[in-house]
């Protein structure tokens, strides 16, 4: 059994780390570093939030003699610059980073107030959950996820390395970007999708209950993030409005084309316009990196599973026995039916053999496609 001292050898992060903000991200950072044996100091403006995070093992309370080498600010976006400035002033020997989902605004605000930005490097982990707070925090929240580091001009390489070590200790993948490129990117891949998911979910508020009984996994997938906290997203969208508006305007243009094509399907070029938009969606999905960052498509095999204990485990065990590597898995339950559908993603060259072998073992295949 490894001891704390042995775990500390594996940690790249040196010295104490102060985490300001004991919500989901802050507490998850703290838990991940604690698992590496790092001395973590937790602070939160709310005494009850602080006690809860400490009870969950996210670190210890601050002492007057603390001298952290690194400070991670994990507070709401509208407070990020203010808190970073306070931490820079209170700990003149510490390097400070933050995990806010926008990067241009905090840096600009810090410069306006004259903060020592030579000790500040913005960063942003692309990870999270629909539910917040220390109670939802996980030490493994960042494993395999991108973590953007937005170093600005004049930051020494040694300081950037400190943030990279933090990211690697938490199992994330460091990605270097400018603050502007980061904000433009997250507008496309995170902030605009949140807006669109929310708008779609709003259509369900007044829907006939009978209609909702027909909802399948597609609707659940596209509205999942609509359950996120409105008060947080008001701040995020407000801080990154410039780039979000650009994406939503393009979305509105495509939506207008689709509405026009559907309104007069016999008009010249209407079906072509609709087909081009749908094909564009196919092309966009194909560009999303999959497992291990691969930009490729997988074959999908849909297997019917009886809704009883142990059936999914048996299916996955048998796929492993057949020597087929499963690239992804999605589950869907049919309302009112005692079956589930497991959508298994595999390499295209493995599809035919896996379908054949599973059928021989008695599994019912509901579909297979690429």
Automatic annotation (TrEMBL):
<dbReference type="GO" id="GO:0006571">
    <property type="term" value="P:tyrosine biosynthetic process"/>
</dbReference>
<dbReference type="InterPro" id="IPR045865">
    <property type="entry name" value="ACT-like_dom_sf"/>
</dbReference>
<dbReference type="InterPro" id="IPR050812">
    <property type="entry name" value="Preph/Arog_dehydrog"/>
</dbReference>
<dbReference type="InterPro" id="IPR036291">
    <property type="entry name" value="NAD(P)-bd_dom_sf"/>
</dbReference>
<dbReference type="InterPro" id="IPR046826">
    <property type="entry name" value="PDH_N"/>
</dbReference>
<keyword id="KW-0057">Aromatic amino acid biosynthesis</keyword>
<keyword id="KW-0560">Oxidoreductase</keyword>
<dbReference type="InterPro" id="IPR046825">
    <property type="entry name" value="PDH_C"/>
</dbReference>
<dbReference type="GO" id="GO:0004665">
    <property type="term" value="F:prephenate dehydrogenase (NADP+) activity"/>
</dbReference>
<comment type="pathway">
    <text>Amino-acid biosynthesis; L-tyrosine biosynthesis; (4-hydroxyphenyl)pyruvate from prephenate (NAD(+) route): step 1/1.</text>
</comment>
<dbReference type="Pfam" id="PF02153">
    <property type="entry name" value="PDH_N"/>
</dbReference>
<dbReference type="GO" id="GO:0008977">
    <property type="term" value="F:prephenate dehydrogenase (NAD+) activity"/>
</dbReference>
<dbReference type="InterPro" id="IPR003099">
    <property type="entry name" value="Prephen_DH"/>
</dbReference>
<keyword id="KW-0028">Amino-acid biosynthesis</keyword>
<dbReference type="InterPro" id="IPR002912">
    <property type="entry name" value="ACT_dom"/>
</dbReference>
<dbReference type="InterPro" id="IPR008927">
    <property type="entry name" value="6-PGluconate_DH-like_C_sf"/>
</dbReference>
<dbReference type="Pfam" id="PF20463">
    <property type="entry name" value="PDH_C"/>
</dbReference>
<dbReference type="GO" id="GO:0070403">
    <property type="term" value="F:NAD+ binding"/>
</dbReference>
<keyword id="KW-0520">NAD</keyword>
<comment type="similarity">
    <text>Belongs to the prephenate/arogenate dehydrogenase family.</text>
</comment>
<feature type="domain" description="Prephenate/arogenate dehydrogenase">
    <location>
        <begin position="15"/>
        <end position="292"/>
    </location>
</feature>
<protein>
    <recommendedName>
        <fullName>Prephenate dehydrogenase</fullName>
        <ecNumber>1.3.1.12</ecNumber>
    </recommendedName>
</protein>
<feature type="domain" description="ACT">
    <location>
        <begin position="300"/>
        <end position="370"/>
    </location>
</feature>
<keyword id="KW-0827">Tyrosine biosynthesis</keyword>
